[in-house]
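User: quick one, sequence for these tokens?
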């Protein structure tokens, strides 16, 4: 019996990608050694190496879950496994396929295995979009090794994949590709016979913009490169100029060097706009940093600093907002992190401002650095160890909680600084209540105004 037409077409596509195929498809690696990035999965003796027969020992589970961001090589790894094992490669997407299509592939795999001795690799993209019942339909094929299932997901599989399938699968986590990884792919595509065959060149300035556009997504990088190369050749140009790339992808090159002056100038402008309460200017500079591919964690760190440096107790929730934003950014990354950074930037820009906390610690540090310190008053010293009482430690200390007002009029600072006042609160926003509290406590501590 002949294999079904669906899988036969997949086999034919696997053997030879036509020149009309997208560049990202034509440049798909044929072996694990051609794979760029994911080196933590490609070490000698790794599960992937065993799966393709490159390492001794058992091949391991016949089901593999690939979890990672878009464009990191999930489809590529599945394709390479099928090539290396001389298996039929069938690709389904959970967006368009259902149980009927899955069963058709499994039936075809059983026929091919029994009649032709040909194994089948089933690549199922976006498996998290399958319902529980649809995922259940995969279990017999996995348990009986009728297919080698390689499923891909951008969602956390511990929440999106059923436990029986997860327990029968090898989970491999793919990391975002670095700029160096993407650069290597681009340069290979420019010269490779399967790619652009040196028909065009790519200047450094254009390459840098292409890397920013890619955002760690190999497919996006190669798609943009192919479009820009076509536009350049249509113009009769042998070089992909920056203007051509901008026109092709409809995305201007941001004048921003992540390692140079623009990095610090734009970051400075963002913070100063927040300090000046100009929310629109702050959002402009934030957008420039995002569009240029700035590390979102760097932006989040600057916002946390601003929350204490420029807002402080005028809005005590500002730091909470900035810290929460930093935690969220670390968890979700771009592009969604742009929403979180916008949220925090708007909140900080519109918050009442006070630098009283900044000036307070600055003044205290200046005194310490000048040598203004002195011994800790005896009644405040640690009195919990043997012999401390004989030294007079703790004698005369008044426990504030024993007093009706909860405050004891006793000296806390060293003699040299007993009347020094560092914190000078403003009346801005919520800090007004701290100003009242400071005035009351200083009076009840018997402090003289300096």
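Assistant:
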């Amino acid at each position: 019996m002949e294999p079904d037409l669906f899988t036969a077409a997949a086999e034919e596509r696997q053997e030879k990608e036509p020149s009309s195929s997208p560049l990202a498809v034509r440049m798909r690696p044929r072996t694990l050694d051609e794979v760029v990035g994911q080196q933590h999965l490609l070490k000698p003796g790794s599960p992937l190496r065993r799966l393709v027969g490159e390492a001794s020992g058992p091949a391991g589970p016949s089901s593999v879950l690939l979890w990672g961001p878009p464009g990191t090589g999930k489809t590529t790894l599945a394709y390479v496994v099928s090539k290396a094992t001389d298996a039929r490669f069938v690709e389904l997407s959970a967006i368009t396929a259902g149980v009927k299509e899955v069963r058709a592939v499994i039936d075809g795999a059983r026929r091919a295995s029994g009649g032709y001795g040909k194994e089948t690799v089933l690549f199922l993209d976006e498996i998290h979009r399958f319902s529980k019942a649809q995922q259940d339909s995969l279990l017999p094929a996995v348990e009986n090794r009728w297919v080698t299932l390689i499923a891909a997901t951008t969602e956390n599989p511990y929440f999106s994949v059923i436990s029986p399938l997860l327990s029968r699968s090898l989970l491999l986590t793919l990391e975002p590709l670095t700029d160096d990884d993407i650069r290597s792919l681009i340069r290979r595509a420019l010269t490779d016979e399967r790619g652009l065959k040196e028909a065009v060149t790519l200047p450094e300035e254009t390459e840098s913009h292409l890397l920013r556009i890619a955002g760690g997504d190999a497919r996006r990088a190669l798609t943009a490169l192919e479009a820009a190369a076509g536009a350049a050749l249509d113009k009769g140009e042998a070089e992909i100029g920056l203007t051509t790339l901008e026109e092709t992808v409809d995305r201007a090159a941001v004048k921003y060097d992540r390692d140079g002056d623009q990095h610090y100038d734009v970051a400075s402008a963002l913070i100063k706009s927040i300090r000046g309460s100009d929310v629109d200017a702050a959002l402009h500079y934030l957008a420039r940093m995002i569009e240029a591919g700035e590390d979102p964690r760097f932006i989040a760190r600057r916002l946390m600093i601003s929350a204490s440096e420029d807002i402080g107790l005028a809005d005590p929730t500002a730091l909470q907002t900035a810290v929460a934003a930093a935690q969220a950014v670390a968890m979700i990354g771009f592009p969604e992190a742009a929403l979180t950074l916008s949220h925090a930037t708007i909140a900080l820009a519109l918050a009442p401002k006070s630098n009283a906390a900044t000036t307070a610690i600055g003044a205290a540090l200046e005194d310490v650095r000048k040598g203004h310190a002195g011994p800790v008053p005896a009644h405040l010293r640690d009195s919990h160890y043997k012999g401390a009482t004989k030294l007079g430690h703790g004698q005369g200390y008044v426990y504030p909680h024993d007093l009706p007002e909860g405050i004891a009029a006793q000296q806390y600072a060293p003699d040299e600084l007993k009347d020094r006042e560092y914190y000078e609160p403003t009346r801005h926003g919520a800090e007004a209540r701290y100003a009242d509290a400071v005035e009351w406590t200083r009076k009840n501590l018997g402090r003289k105004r300096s």
